[in-house]
Amino acid sequence: MILMLSGTQDGRELGRAIASKGYKLIMTAVSQYGGEMLPVHPGIEHAVGHLSKLDMIELIKERDILVLIDATHPYASEASENAIAAAAEAGIGYLRYERPNLNTEGVDGIVYFSGYPEAAAWLAERSGHVFLTIGSRRLAPFVEAIELDRLTARVLPTVEVLQQCTELGMKPAQLIAMQGPFSKEINLAMLKRCNAKYLVTKASSTIGGFEDKISAARELGLEIVVIERPHVAYPCICDSNTVCIEKLEALLARNI
What we know:
Oligomer: single chain
Radius of gyration: 19 Å
Number of helices: 10
Number of strands: 12
Distance between the termini: 12 Å
Helix content: 25-40%
């Protein structure tokens, strides 16, 4: 049995590809919404809810897990660190699927920050409207540092997310609740609508809509603020379905 922590579209596609080769997987998601997005396949079981390191170790032992595949979001560093530690303590194989990063280093008009508070502090010293595309869980530093009427946040259209935004003091006019990824044209329309001067985004990938966001913002002459991916010491990493399946089969062969 394989345990796969999956929080992304490309991770779900990888899980489906692995199951299609006849392997049995337990695929996990943190939220109910994420659980509903998991692929339906005879070889795939679903598990929904947050898993601590101890939870993972217990599940590994209970279900005779041979390999743990970490396909969580590039910014879910705590989940990855727990997964690495759990696999090591349980003595099983660990494999990280990391979506390719679109390299924009050195591109004019793009500034990088290692964290959200640093980016918020930089924006607080400037004027102009800020368009946030970083998810609902990372809005607090911006709400605390910047006047609310300068902010528009694009978030998932779930009750939980909208409640989080409301508790932060954000009003309906400041929220765009839609499921992405979004095309360049949709990004252009949204950025124009709120008269944005700054776009704040994570360094995701093409599949996460990063390239289209950057392209739209550059066409409008916006300044782009990118939150760098957290640095995690992954012991084994791949960035394509083909390579991941090859490495998975090599790990499984050691346990035969």
